[in-house]
């Protein structure tokens, strides 16, 4: 019997067919952002939330000791591993799926339920994947850039991927009793906060020290995401010629 | 933008190059892959020496600026960052911009280098792509997963002109930044240069 769980991915994939593809000249420097005005409003909102939580300064979550944050981040990473494995199987990347299965086995046991990243130290480093990457492997285009409330930068394809990942997460299919079910969600949310602190300086520079934080966030997100999923064809992967510029006078 | 004409300096240089090539038939003026990797290696050694020196932040940033100017193709990086707006800049503005920009990148990236205390960058190798060399390195920092930093060295200039940190391109980032700073000043180049002297 079809359950409600199958509904989000079906709706999400329907949305994919609506992924916009830039026409010639629509994506200067590899950036396709037809909804820029709306995105900028969401960005301003996200930035307010971030600074209310202590971003751009001392205090907030950055007051928590680093080892605690690292532990939280590790547990959240371990909880995400089954989802990574499912996606790597869908991408037919069997070697990486196998290594991540081992990683999950090691960290969930010897690593004390994921608190310590033991696997990383014995040659099984972090190697994340998600349904957004699976869609790229399957040949879906990136679509337009969007900034999502609270979640942050994404593209249309990545936004669909995020929805499907919630339904794909194998841990969601264990019928956990009620409190434990929410622990999992809570730890993953805490993991995001921990990561925000770990990359604090870099993100602070991006959000609070740049002349146009929206444009810089968009720039960095698109470049980093394409690099992460190995997309060398979209946008700014273009070669920059060190001689094709008039430097006279500079 | 391509260069459409030869300057007198180019003619002198190419004349000298022709003379050199006649003298040493096997020698090419352009750098080799090994030389590109060597340039990056020497630059990293210099950066590490500054980080380990224990000097004040101001003194370190002055050292970083010297390193940027020695190993980097500053006129190229500055011209790229200014983009199309460079075409309407006067020669004096261009000079002032390059100077302000060199200080700005030294402050901005110098602050990032502080994270490298106790860490290291390992050179993985270098390969030729068209008229540049790509030198790949891995950054190993304490308490972080290793990440890729790639340096680009121009074949002709023999200096580094771009760097990618996990796919994020320095030239594009700085062109976006300078463009935004110009927009904020409604296109006033002098006002943007004044802001740039304080930024980073």
Describe the structure.
- The complex is a heterodimer of chains A (about 250) and B (about 200).
- Chain A has about 250 residues and is mainly α.
- Chain A is about 55% helix and about 5% strand.
- Chain A has helices at about 5-15, 35-50, 65-90, 95-110, 120, 130-135, 155-170, 180-200, 200-210, 215-230, and strands spanning about 145-150, 150-155.
- In chain A, strands 1-2 form a two-stranded antiparallel sheet.
- The mean pLDDT of chain A is about 80.
- Chain B contains seven helices and five strands, in the order αααααβββββαα.
- In chain B, strand 3 and strand 4 (about 160-165) form a beta hairpin.
- In chain B, strands 1-2-3-4-5 form a five-stranded antiparallel sheet.
- The interface of A and B includes residues 66, 219, 245 and 249 of A.
- Chain B: InterPro entries: MlaC/ttg2D, TAT_signal, Tgt2/MlaC_sf.
């Amino acid at each position: 019997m079809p359950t409600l769980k199958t509904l989000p991915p079906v709706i999400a994939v329907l949305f994919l067919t609506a992924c916009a593809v830039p026409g010639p000249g629509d994506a200067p420097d590899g950036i396709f952002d037809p909804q820029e005005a709306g995105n900028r409003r969401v960005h301003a909102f996200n930035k307010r939330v971030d600074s209310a939580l202590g971003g751009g300064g001392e205090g907030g979550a950055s007051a928590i000791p680093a080892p605690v944050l690292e532990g939280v981040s590790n547990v959240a990473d371990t909880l995400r591993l089954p989802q990574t494995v499912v996606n790597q199987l869908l991408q037919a990347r069997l070697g990486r799926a196998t290594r991540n299965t081992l990683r999950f086995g090691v960290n969930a046991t010897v690593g004390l339920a994921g608190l310590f990243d033991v696997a990383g130290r014995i040659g099984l480093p972090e190697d994340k994947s998600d349904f957004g990457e699976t869609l790229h492997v399957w040949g879906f285009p990136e679509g337009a850039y969007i900034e999502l409330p609270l979640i942050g930068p994404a593209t249309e394809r990545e936004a669909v991927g995020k929805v499907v990942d919630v339904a794909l997460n194998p841990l969601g299919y264990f019928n956990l009793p009620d409190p434990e079910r929410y622990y999992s969600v809570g730890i993953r949310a805490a993991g995001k906060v921990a990561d925000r602190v770990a990359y604090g300086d870099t993100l602070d520079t991006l959000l609070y020290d740049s002349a146009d934080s929206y444009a810089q966030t968009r720039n960095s997100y698109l470049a980093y995401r394409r690099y992460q999923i190995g997309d060398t064809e979209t946008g700014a992967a273009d070669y920059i010629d060190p001689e094709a510029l008039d430097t006279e006078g500079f | 933008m391509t260069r459409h004409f030869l300057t007198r300096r180019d003619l002198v240089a190419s004349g000298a190059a022709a003379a050199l090539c006649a003298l040493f038939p096997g020698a090419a003026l352009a750098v080799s892959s090994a030389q590109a990797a060597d340039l990056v290696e020497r630059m990293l050694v210099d950066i590490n020496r500054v980080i380990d020196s224990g000097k004040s932040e101001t003194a370190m940033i002055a050292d970083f600026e010297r390193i940027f100017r020695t190993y980097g193709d500053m006129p190229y990086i500055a011209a790229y960052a200014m983009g199309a707006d460079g075409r309407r800049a006067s020669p004096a503005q261009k000079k002032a911009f390059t100077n302000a920009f060199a200080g700005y990148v030294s402050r901005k990236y110098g602050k990032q280098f502080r994270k490298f205390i106790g860490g290291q960058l390992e050179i993985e190798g270098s390969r030729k792509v068209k008229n540049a060399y790509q030198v790949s390195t891995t950054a190993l920092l304490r308490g972080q997963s290793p990440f890729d930093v790639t340096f680009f060295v121009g074949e002709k200039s023999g200096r580094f002109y771009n760097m990618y940190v996990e796919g994020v391109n320095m030239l594009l980032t700085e062109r976006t930044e300078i463009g935004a700073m110009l927009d904020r000043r409604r296109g006033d180049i002098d006002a943007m240069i004044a802001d740039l002297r304080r930024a980073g």
